Input
Amino acid sequence: MKRNRKQWLAVLFFTVLLLVGAVRCGNAAEESTSEETASTEQSVASVEDIPGKRVGVQLGTTGDIYVSDYEKDGSGTVVERYNKGADAIQALKQGKIDCVIIDEQPALKFVEQNSGIKVLEEEFTLEEYAFVVAKGNDALLEQVNTAIAELKADGTLEQIEKNYVGEESDIGKYPYEKKNVSRENGTLTIGTNAEFPPYESYENGEIVGIDIDIMQAICDKLGMELAVEDMAFDSIISAVSTGKVDIGAAGFTVTEERKKNVNFSDTYTTSKQVIIVQDETVSAEKNGFAQKFYDNFIKDSRYQYLVKGLGNTLIITVFALLIGVVLGFLIAIVRTGHDRNGSFAVLNAVCRLYLTIVRGTPIMIQLLIIYYVIFQSLNTGKLIVAIIAFGLNSAAYVAEIVRSGIMAVDIGQFEAGRSLGLNYRQTMSSIILPQAIKNILPALCNEFISLLKETSISGYIGLLDLTKGGDIIRSVTFEAFMPLIAVALIYLVMVMGLSKAVNLLERRLRNNER
Output
C-alpha cells in the first residue's frame, strides 16, 4: 500500500512540475530568444548570409530541396528538417536555428501569430503550385486541368485567393460556396497536410484553406464528392502513387525530381520561398498560464482533438491486443509443440521467420509498409490498418511471453497428463496452459501498457490518435508546450492506472499461491 501511495505522489509531483514547467518554459523561451539573438546580431539578413548558418525547413518541401545544396558546398551550413513548419518556427524563436525558409503565405501567417520574428524582404526563390496526380491516371489529370482552366476563366480562382490573402478588407468576404450539383461521379479523395495556412489548416475542427476551396470547386465541376485526408507532407506523394488518395493538394511546387514519381496539373498560383528570422526590435509577447490554456484547449473547442484522438488510441490498443493475444497464443503453441515433440515443422519455420521479421524491424516501418504496400490497392480504413499493424506486432511479443510461460511449467506435468491417457491437446488445454497463463498474466499486462504507448506513431499514416491531436493543436496555436504536456499527462495517467492494475493482479496471484 505504501508503494502505491508513493507512486501516486510521484505522479502528482510530476504533474505539478510539468504544469509549472509549461508556464516557466513558455516565458523562458521568449526571454532566452532575445538573449541568444543578441549574440548572433541577426546573423541572417539576406540570402547571401545563409551559407554556414543553421537553417530550418519543413521536411520534403521546396525549401528543403533548395537548401540541401548549401549542405554540399563546404560552407558548413546545417539544415534542420522538421515535420511541421510550426516546429521550425518554435526552434527559431528559441534560438536553436538562425532562420526558416518556407512558402510566403504560410510565413506571413506564422509572423502574424508569433511575435519576435519577421520575414526578410528579399525572396529566396520563386515557385509555382500545382496539384499532384498519379502517373498513368491521365483521365483524371485531364479533367482537373479542364476544371482549373474554367475556374481561372470565370474568376473563381482569383476570388478564392482574395478571400484568404487579399486586401485586409477582402479577407473572409469571398468564401467559396459549395454548389448544389449532382455527385453521381463518385468521391475524389485528396491528400493534404493541414499545417500550411492559408492553403490548408484546421479551423473549428474542419480542414479549410485555398487548396481545399479550389478542390471543392473542381469537384463541383466534375460532379464528385470531396473527401480530405490529412497526413504528413512527405507522405502525400507516396499516398498518391500507391492509390491511397486521388490527388495531392498541399501547395506542391513543380520540380523535376517530383516529376519522376507523379504528374502535375496545370499551375493554379505563383508563390515564393521567403526567409524568416528573429526580429530583435520587437519584444516577445508573454501570455499567462490561463490565456495559454484557453488558446490551446478551450478556444474553438480544441480539446476535442485530444478527446477524439484518445478514443482512437484506446480502440487501436484494445483490438490490437486481442489480435496479439489470439495470434500470439497460436504461435506459442506451434513453437512449443515443435520444441517438445518435433511436430508442426513447417508451421514452426513460418512462425520463426515471422518472429524474426517483426521483432527485428521498427513498428513504424511495419505500419508504413502495411498501409502503403500490403494494403496499397485496398480501400481499407486507417483505423483498421493501425489495428492490424499493431496487432501483428504485438503477437510476436505475446508469442514469446506465452512460450516462455509454457516452457516454465515443469515437464513432469506434461508427462503426468499423458500417462493419465490425455492426448497432447487435452494435456495442453487442461494442465499446461492454465498454469502458464497464471504465470504470464503480469507480463501480458505490461505488453498492453507498451502497446498503448506504441500507438502514438499512428499519425504517420494520417490517423487522428492522441499524439496527432496534440500535433493539430500545435499547428493551430504555434504553442509547443501546452499540447505536448497535455498529451504526456494523459498517457502518464493511463499508464499509471494500468500499472496499478498490474500490481493488484500480481498481489492477488501471490495470495492465491499461499
